[in-house]
Design brief:
The chain is an all-alpha fold. The protein has a domain at 11-181: Tetracycline Repressor, domain 2 (Orthogonal Bundle), CATH 1.10.357. It is built from 11 helices and no strands. It has helices at 11-18, 35-50, 60-67, 71-74, 81-95, 110-127, 143-156, 163-194, 198-213, 219-222, 233-252. It starts with 10 loop residues before the first helix and ends in a 5-residue tail after the last helix. 23% of the residues are buried.
Length: 257
């Protein structure tokens, strides 16, 4: 499940924070606390909580404790958790933006461009396991988000496909990556929470499942190869990504190159 987020913040305040238009405390000595410090602490706190409890457990109090300040002091910089999540999302997206060839025409094919983008998002989800669980149904685009989208669309435009189709291709891939990441992270979280590995979990069920499969009631399951279920989430991710791009190639036809 994704945590509620989309409707629990003020979009205008989020936009002002993301684009640097909201006034900061400016008088007197330079503040010991900054918005960047709050976002960085929030990301670190969320990374820790996501391993077992999930993004729902992230609170302003927990962030303030990490910073060694009072909870109310955070509200001088950010109205609440909803707006802070918008800042956190844009912050981590910026971590995975490529630093080279930003202004050079990409000579790779469209598949390589999308593969690189998918792997960047996968790494981001693994490094920040709260990210794919945040409801982004009403995304507030910040500078890093918009920069990344502009970069990808710019490298896909030589296909000669309309912007609407390109956006849907990017959106379909993004949903695929995040959906697979959520399944993988849920499995990882279950291991952290219970101390029981996936192998031990299925081993405990093996005697009952084997008896059921060999009963004759499930002939297709009984005929499967022994290694049918012997794959990792990383292998599942790569397999699905390849088949997704095969579908794009069929749609693009001669333009696929």
């Amino acid at each position: 499940m994704t945590t509620e987020h989309g409707d629990r913040r003020d979009p205008q305040r989020s936009l002002k924070l993301l684009w640097g238009d909201l006034a900061r405390p400016a008088r007197g000595r330079p503040p010991a606390l900054t918005l960047d410090a709050i976002v960085t602490a929030a990301v670190a706190t969320a990374d820790e909580l996501a391993r077992t409890e999930g993004i729902e457990a992230l609170t302003m109090r927990a962030i303030a404790k990490r910073l060694g300040v009072g909870t109310m002091s955070l509200y001088r910089y950010v109205p609440g958790k909803g707006e802070l999540l918008d800042l956190m999302i844009d912050h981590v997206i910026g971590e995975y933006e490529p630093e080279d060839e930003e202004n050079e025409e990409d000579e790779r094919g469209w598949r390589a461009v999308l593969e690189a983008e998918a792997h960047r998002k996968w790494r981001m989800c693994m490094d920040h396991p709260w990210y794919p669980f945040v409801d982004q149904s009403r995304t507030i685009l910040g500078p890093n988000s918009l920069r990344g989208l502009d970069r990808v669309l710019g490298r896909l435009r030589p296909l000669g496909v309309g912007g609407r189709s390109l956006m849907m291709m990017v959106g379909v891939q993004s949903d695929y990556v995040e959906g697979t990441a959520r399944s993988h992270l849920n499995e990882r979280r279950a291991v952290e929470r219970t101390g029981l590995s996936g192998e031990d979990f299925w081993a405990a069920q093996a005697p009952t499942l084997e008896k059921a499969v060999l009963s004759g009631r499930f002939p297709t399951m009984a005929a499967l190869d022994e290694n049918t279920f012997d794959w990792s989430y990383e292998q599942l991710f790569e397999f699905g990504l390849g088949r997704l791009h095969d579908g794009f190639a069929s749609y693009l036809g001669d333009r696929a190159g």
